[in-house]
Amino acid sequence: MIICHFYRKKRSKAVKNRVHEHYELKIGILNNPFGIEPSQLFTLATRNNPKRRFLFVSKVLGKHLDVDPKTALAAGRLLALRYFESKNENLAYDRHKVIEAVKGTQSHSFTFERGYKLDENVAVLGFAETATALGHSVFSAFEDAGVYYHTTRENYQTVESSLKFEEEHSHATTHYLYEDEDKRLNSYGNVILVDDEISTGNTLLNIIRSIKAKAGNRKFTVLTILDWRSEQSRKKFETFMIEEGVEIEVFSLLEGTLDRVENFDMSQMVLPVTPAYPSTKDNQKKQLPDYRPLLMPSYGKKLDHSIADAGYGSYTGRFGLTGDHNKYLSRQAAEFAKVIQPNVVGKTLVLGLEENMYVPLLIASELKGQLSFRSTTRSPILYFDDVDYPINEAVALKSTYQKEVVNYLYNMKKNAYDTVLIVAEKASDKHALKELYEYICDKCDHAFVYLIEEGRKKIADPDKIGSYPADDVVFLLKEIDGQIREQDNQVREQAIQSGVHYSEMLPIEYKPSKEYLDLYHHAMDSNAKKLAAAVGAVSERIASYHDKDFVLVSLARAGTPAGVLIKRYLEQVVHKKVDHYSVSIIRGKGIDENAIHYILNKHPGKTLQFIDGWTGKGAITNELVDAIDSFESRFGAQKLLCKELAVIADPAHCVRLYGTRDDFLIPNACLNSTVSGLLSRTIHRSDLIGLDDFHGVKFYRELMEEDLSNEFIEQIASHYQDTGLELDRQEFVIDPCEPSWLGVEDVNRIMDDFGIDNVHFVKPGVGETTRVLLRRIPWKILINEKARGIDHIIQLAREKGIAVETYPLKAYNCCGIVKSLKGE
User: Fold this and answer.
1) Helices (H), ranges, 583-643
2) Do residue 721 and residue 757 come from a single domain?
3) pTM of this prediction?
4) 823 or 149: which leads in pLDDT
5) Domain enclosing residue 245, as ranges
6) CA triplet 678, 565, 562: central angle to 5 degrees?
7) Count of CB atoms within 10 A of residue 187's CB?
8) Is the Cβ–Cβ distance between 232 and 258 less than 8 Å?
9) Is 467 part of any domain?
10) Residues 126 and 241 in one domain
11) 315 found inside a domain
12) pLDDT tens digits, residue range 564-593?
């Protein structure tokens, strides 16, 4: 049994007469699963609330008292760990580290690694305002949790809440829950409710009853730091489960019973008061806030316009947060910390506002220095200047959300901090923020207000690179010359087959040999007019497909010449002016989203039409569709990113917008950078490409004299006005067959017949086979016995000693197979 006295019988520093004990609290500990001392989790204070005078003041939440940011995050993770271990035979891999972080002994070195994997589909729900960050921390600790919500005290008049319920003992009783129609609670088998404390549990039963009635959920889990339910309250839970037909499990960090004897004498205690602000002109001028924006790029579909216009963010949990969105949020918080870090001077407090706790807390955890965190609160606590009482100073302030609501800030003593960093939502009332800022300025040397603004990501203009004129194409790529070492084919092939991603390496870019140049010129002589006709056909299809303005977006680097050719045709023949950008898309990593943000910002309302040179087996076609789906689900822009990839040649039969489905050698497949603007293939490596960077590329200026990029464009474009081209183009345009994915049938059959277990080893089509022979380590070449125009394939294979076999290909003229280097 622990007996907690609010005051000892001693002389107060502020009041000269003796202070009598107001009451004592007897705590019986029933379960302490992690051996954390109660004094490490909470202390006690008195509040001006007749419903319940005493208050447990948490030492790990960061609401009323300062906390190490990592301790606060660890508290949520420990609750998640508690639940995880209840469902698994093994202990959590980081158990000891998390417990010590909550105790505060190792919080400075605590790092968040992989999440706990659950075998069920869960939604996590935190309670406003105290447990918004706690619930979010629990959600972040699960690897595959479905959605996170927190209740809110904000009543959005233009949007109907899904649930409304009352918290009986609270100073602000009404809670609202706003569900996203795509992330409703009834989609999840278990709803995990997170709060900092349970006393009677009546609030929990209220919301469980409401959720069951509204959504039909019947399985609930409660995670709480403190569980003080009496025997009577526990029996009430059991009766409730039987009557409502629901299952409820409760897990806590500390479970016990309370017996209290109340004898209140509040005469020596003080209510928080509104501060007096400096009134001189000099002070007012000095203390005007410098609002510093932190841009949070929009993620997911847009909020109701009235909520978004008011400045409320979709990242707080008020409107539902998915696991992917949460990972994105963590990356953004780390970037925000980099922006804020220079202003961390001396002892620094990061201050959140009311319900907006988790993002400021996450930012604080990423900062370096003497950091602590807490937030303002609507909870009125009586303060008293006594060494044994936790709240020694208090101030009442206007809420930064609702003018009629009062907020409180505790223990903000003069010179307690060198720096205070206020992190607010854009929704915050500027006048109330100014008053808070003025109050803070009087308490410390440095104060800053950071406003999180949600909107389209803003990306800096790219530097001019490449050998094409800017009128032909703008490369949205970051030049990384000298920062990556080129490797020969053998080394790269072994690395790729051992698991290194191809986008993290570059092949050696040789000066084109006479043999390669002869092959290129032969292809130009044989196929230039055919290529021009195919360009015309796909350009006409693109023009007729779109009923509004569009932008060409070629996929570097093979797609870049195709994009330039299509742009030239649209302008010279169709007389349609279009902009053209070239961006990176990487198999397995997706498209460069910064480049997409940039184009959407530059051309609002215009559709993005993606361009590539040809289809191999449709991998990039699928990659593009997946990338667009992902981008739209997180950033909006529905119907602005066209999923119909346009290509000059579609031997794989996997797109609708194509020039021809003939499998022939497009001349630029023979050469590398010297026919693609002197740029390498695109690169994406985390040590080279930052969060706001475009994907990387190398610019081979040393090959300027060998560059054929513009000559190639001019030669093909010179055929656009040929008399015979019109007939050739019409032949392509007529009967645009739907994609049959015939090429996939060839690929699957090849894999079965030759025992190939990696689809990336199969490179079908004349263009891809040529590239295998030039850039990879080939095993064998398969050719269609009826194929024509593949003399160069046979010649290259013979020169390299590669076996050539006939094979019944349906979609392609030939196919290259990469050699497996396992065991070599």
Assistant:
1) 593-602, 619-635
2) no
3) 0.66
4) 149
5) 69-254
6) 65
7) 14
8) no
9) no
10) yes
11) no
12) 999 999 999 999 999 999 999 998 889 999
